[in-house]
Model the fold of this input.
Amino acid sequence: MALSLRGLEFVPEAADETPLEQRSGRRLVSIVVPLLNEQPTLAELYHELDEALASLEADWEVVFVDDGSTDGSYQELVRLHESHLNVRVVRLRRNFGKAAALAAGVEVASGEIVVTMDADLQDDPAEIPHLIAKIDEGFDVVSGWKCDRQDPFVRRFVSRIYNGATRVATGVKLHDMNCGLKAYRAEVFEHVRLYGERHRFVPVLAHHLGFSVTELPVNHRPRLNGRSRFGIERYLRSPFDLLTIVFMGRYRYRPLHLFGGVGLCASLAGAAILLYLTVEKVGGAGIGGRPLLLLGVLLVVVGVQFLSLGLIGEMLTSQHEEKTQSLPGKRAHVRDTLR
Done:
C-alpha cells in the first residue's frame, strides 16, 4: 500500500491487509501519535495502549508518524510494526512540524473515531476510553484538559494566559487548547485542514463549522524521557496564530463585516472632522495649515480603502462558494439528512 502525500514514506502492511473493522465487524478507533526523537518511550506507549484499550468494545489501531526523527525512533517503529498487526507507520522525509505529522496520520487512519496523543508518555492512554465515551454521548470533538499539569511553572503560566485569551477571542470555552490528547469523529477531519499551527485550534475550527465540542479532565504525567520543544518562538507565534483563527472563524465568509466596519468608522470620523473644519472656515478661521485637516482627509481615504478591501473579499468569497457548491460531497455544516 502506498501513501499519496508528497514527502512521506509509508511502511508496508503485514501479510493480512484486511482492515481491522472488516475482520471483526466492530467499529475501529485510530490512535494517531506524532513523534520526534522519542525512541525510549515507543514500546512502553504501545504496551500501555494495549492494556488501556483491551476492554474497549471496538478494534483499534495506532498510527505512528515519525516527523523526521534522528535517534532511531523509526527503527523501533519498524520493529513494532513487524510484531503487531494494528501498528501502522508513516515516516516524513524531514521535520515538517506537528500539524503536518497529524495530517499525514489522519489520512492513513481508517477508524471512525480518531484519537490524537503525544508520544512522550505524558498523555495517559487510560484516558482514551473516557474520551470515546464522551464521543458516544453525541459530541464530535472531546478535548483533554490537563487540570493538574505536570510541567514547569513558566509553561503553565504562559499556557494559562494563552488559553484565557483564546476563550475570550473565539468564544469556545475550553480550559486547555494545547492538550495533545483529543478525540474526534473522523468526519471532522474531512472539513478541517491541518497545516501551520492549526492543530492547536482544531476544536475552535470544528466549533465554527457547527460540530459539537466539549472537554474532559485527563491525567497528565511528568516527562521522564527526552526534552520539551516548547521554545521562545512559540510565544512569539501564538498571537498571530490566534488572530488568524479568529479572523477565519468569524469573518471568512463575510469579510465586509470586518473591513467594512473599520472603513465605515474611519470614514465617518474623517467626515465629521472635515464638516467641523468646514464650519470653522465659513466662520472665517484659517484651516489650511491645521493638522486636523490632514487627519480628516487621511481617515476618509483609509476608510474608502477598507471598504474596497471588504468588497473585494466578498467577491472572492462568493466565487469560492460557487465553486465548492458545484462539487459533490457533503457540506461541512450539514450533520444529517433524513429523506
